[in-house]
Design brief:
Helices cover 20% and strands 24% of the residues.
Amino acid sequence: MSIKRRCTLRAFSGCALAIILSIGCAAPRSFCFDVISDNRMYTPPKHVGSAYFEGVCEAIRDTGPGAFMIAVGDIDPPELTYTTVQRVLANGYIWYPVVGNHELGKPEYMDWLRAYNAGGRKLPNIVRAGPPGAVETCYSFDYAHAHFAIINQYYDGQRDDVEGGTVSDALYQWLSDDLAATDKPIVFVVGHEPIIAMPDMDTGRIRHQGDSLDEDPKAAHRFWSLLRKHNVVAYLCGHTHNTSIARINGLWQIDSGHARGIGDKGAPSSFVRIRVTGNDVTCNVYRSAQADQEPYRITYSEQLRQEGEEDSLRASRTPS
């Protein structure tokens, strides 16, 4: 698979500029959401203040938070990440977690995540619970005219806490069924590990190349092909602590980097905000200057889909 990395600077900021006709981000067919990952161990009470994950939450709040947050794994301890989000943003703020490899480290972390989505349908807007053995830690939900499939790459068909991230046969089948069932025009798939690790867009640091999903090339290619088949707008991931926006043979892969503040000095702390307006989808990357702890600001933006593109994609895949 060839890989093309694209990043462009835009001059707008915040959610409000994207959604002129709404209050907040949850107007019909116009909304935004925030993506964070890999803030692990940099939450209160041990790490308090704007220099750490708490500062990421403050930046999301101060720039106008999205309708919900997706936390793409390595958020341990998950309970402390959740309580920080609730305290800084709002009590009851919608928060969707993803299992990362470090959640496997302690049984209590996985127990907490399973209880958070007890029965596979406790979270808002759920349309499909996970498969047997991962009922709570794989799930999909709809928001407005968009569909989101959350996958647990540590599910082997029996357990949801097996070391070594991949897209197992059982996980692939669940995802295939889920994507085939949705009629939403905007679709995102979310998992912890990237298809292939990309360098950080600012520092060039590379981590986990060759030991992410690409460790099993056949499974990675099959996964990529499935997402392309169903016109998925973007695959959202983390794991590397490096922020990147890459287009892999027609599929956008967005790695949201790390949200540890100054806890990781190899790349700036980041969060990603994705705006959906009709069938237009744009991704904004917010980063901290880190060295002098300037406020988080938009440093990159990318148009992921434009109005009419989805129809042309479907037409190109319809047999003549």
